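Appendix C reproduces, verbatim, an entry submitted by the partner laboratory led by Prof. M.T., so that reviewers can inspect both the input and the predicted structure.
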Amino acid sequence: MTPGVTSARAVTCFCGDITRTIDGVTATTPDPHPDNDTLPRWRSRYAVLDEIKRLDPERDHVRIAYLSGSYDFPFDTQRSLELALLRTFAVPRSSELMVDTGEFVTRTQKRYDDTTILISAIGFYGYDSPEGRRAIRRMNQIHRHYPIPNHEFLYVLTTFVFEPIRWNAKFGWRLLHEHEKLASYYFWREVGRRMNIRDIPDTVAGLEHYNRSYEAEHFAYSPHNQKLAEATRDLFLGWVLPKPLWRYGAYAVYAVMDDAMLDAFGFPRPPAWLRYSIGKALRLRGAAARLLPPRRTPYRLPPTRSYPGGVALEEVGPDRPVAPPQNSAP
């Protein structure tokens, strides 16, 4: 294998500069963002922001999304996208299909890892990089087996834009610059176009209006919503707590959800003091992060629980797509 060239069998694990192949051969993958030499090795905490301010949010949106997500906000990006994933379960028609496939309920960790790997490839390398194109192609291959209407794809796309922005406004160690917000819109709009999502609004305001209106119209309780949300909640709790403590830890998960999500999932509303305490803890975490030295290298997704040795992008996803029941109409 030639250095810098990944085959269709190359394992993508986003750890260091090594891309491993399934047969054990390794090859160095060069930095997909050669402009990183504009970031001095010993730089201020706000050097990334300074560069972002100099960039054009439309023309340079791939670069801005990379700098923001891989240097300044890797933790916040991951947590907010987990919340975005949960948010999509609050739509009964969508959740019914997801429960029917079995992927989200019986293989929750793998489904989470699959999503994380594909989104990370697009975010880190860019949607028009070889890795980004492979990830989008794989997503399209998976989704084409299911009768998912355009409006549901579009709603999911909106959560990828606005959940990180809203999380940052509450918990970020610094506020997102307007260039970062605009770049996120342009970035995910281009991803959406490559996924053949139609009718994407032409402005950030238009996309946010769609997001708010869609939730107001479609969020409602259903047993399918609850089943998906419980499986995902338990996945998160299993990472940090022994099972006997899940019943107590669950309220910390509820505390980062808004009332519309809780009602759609049939979850109890946490006491006000707990919501305040969890919010305060996340804000303190942001304040502490402000005092840390800047990252010298970009964050890369470590090996996942489902694929500790890495996995080819072409092999991410269900082993065999499950056909939806006949009554699952588009």
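Residues 119 and 135 are 8 Å apart (CA to CA). Additional entries are available on request from the coordinating office.
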